[in-house]
Amino acid sequence: MKVRVTKVFTFDMAHALYGYDGPCKNIHGHTYRLHVTVSGRINDQSGHPEQGLVVDFGKIKEITERHIMSQFDHALVLHKEAPYTRDSFLPDNFEKVILLDVQPSCENLMMHFQRLLVGELPIEVTLVKLKLEETPTSYAEWQVED
Q1: How many Å apart are CA 140 and CA 16, to the nearest integer?
Q2: Are 140 and 131 in contact, with CB atoms under 8 Å apart?
Q3: Share of the chain above pLDDT 70, in %
Q4: Per-residue pLDDT tens digits for 28-87
Q5: CATH superfamily of 2-143
Q6: Residue 45, Cβ neighbours under 10 Å: how many?
Q7: Distance CA 39, CA 28 (A)
Q8: CA–CA separation, 102 vs 42, rounded Å?
Q9: Cα–Cα distance measured from residue 103 to residue 80, given in angstroms and rounded to the nearest whole number
Q10: SS3 readout for 68-135
Q11: Which of 20, 38, 94, 97 is deepest in the core (most CB within 10 A)?
């Protein structure tokens, strides 16, 4: 029998939706909540330091911090085709400007995070779900079975 465990991360990030017909075309920020859910079997090896666990939450935290949080927390994320990214003003004045090949929407950011995590988690677990909350009432969700 498999069990799912989830670790939740909170970070602040700014973005702008290039070409969007609405207020989100302007640079603005959110406090995001990222839910990382993995699935695996509970370790039943007697005497093992992780007996009773699917995975140590600290492992999920270390991997997510290294591959997502350290890059995206307090960053400005923009579509690389946006004309304002060609000016040296942004990289010359800000430490964390990330240019993506896709629109930095909640949905695309979540799928980018999925690609960053797959293959990095311990072999005993599988990434099965991500939920990225952009606001307290709006989020995108990915599940492996979809």
Answers
A1: 17
A2: yes
A3: 100
A4: 999 999 999 999 999 998 998 889 899 999 999 999 999 999 999 999 999 999 988 877
A5: 6-pyruvoyl tetrahydropterin synthase/QueD (3.30.479.10)
A6: 9
A7: 34
A8: 38
A9: 9
A10: HHHHHCCEEEEECCCHHHCCCHHHHHCCCEEEECCCCCHHHHHHHHHHHHCCCCCCCCEEEEEEEEEE
A11: 38
